[in-house]
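Action item from last week, closing it out:
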Amino acid sequence: MPRAELSNGIELEYETFGDPDDPTLLLVCGYTSQINGWDEGLVELLVAQGLHVVRYDNRDVGLSTKLDGQHVQPLKVLRASMDGEPLPEVPYTLSDMAADGMGLLDHLGIDRAHVAGVSMGGMIVQTMAIEHPDRVASLTSVMSSPGDPRAGAPTPEAREALMAPPPTERAAYIEAAERVTVWASKRYVDLAAIKERAAADFDRMFYPEGATRQLAAIYASGDRSELLCELDVPTLVIHGRDDTLITPSGGELTAERIRGSRLLLVSDMGHDLPKPLWPMLAEAIGGHARVAGAAAA
């Protein structure tokens, strides 16, 4: 798998799919999610939509650069943000993570790309569109939020499951993966597939330290709502009505803030990308990119 060394010193592990002459779709993963957060089966369906697809590990996860030893306390960052106090220093923010994605496009020689992100990845692609609008051909924000603490708040059960430290022993880690059923699409829960993914993730790279820095980056980046109001980028917002980790109001407010955006609420979708929904998701994202491309031509 290729690796891009960026000008900021970060190295990103990435993969490309499809014809480089087709419009590029940059896929951004969520909180602690490795590159297969965008499953290869879904990626292939996106390629079939006429897209050149790029997916990568964010910093501090998978096989990309780790900021070992840079300690931060996310809850202190959150409290300061909520109270309007000066924020504790953080190793990086969502702006830095958005710049990583732009650096990857530079490495690949790509001037503009369609961008799509899930969960924290949705926050990152929103930041890309705000801070690098000339590089973003279209934006797709999936099961995410604009950073307004009043929107998308998790249920208590989902918050507890998210914040629980992962077991460090492989078998226990795989068993603990069942906790994601709290926010998964209830209609499509597949425990065998969930545990298979957990095993693959553990074997590829178990690195829980990065989670605190990624969470602090989210909290330190604050509310993007007003900046989203200024966007002039073709935008599709996708959110599951069954999502308990970032509840649907997160997607609804994102769409409300971005002028001319389209909101797709999916009744049987939670905070995941279940296989039965891949054809619908690929068609929605691919169709959005085609329309945006045609409008810009």
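Closing note: The first helix runs from residue 40 to 47.
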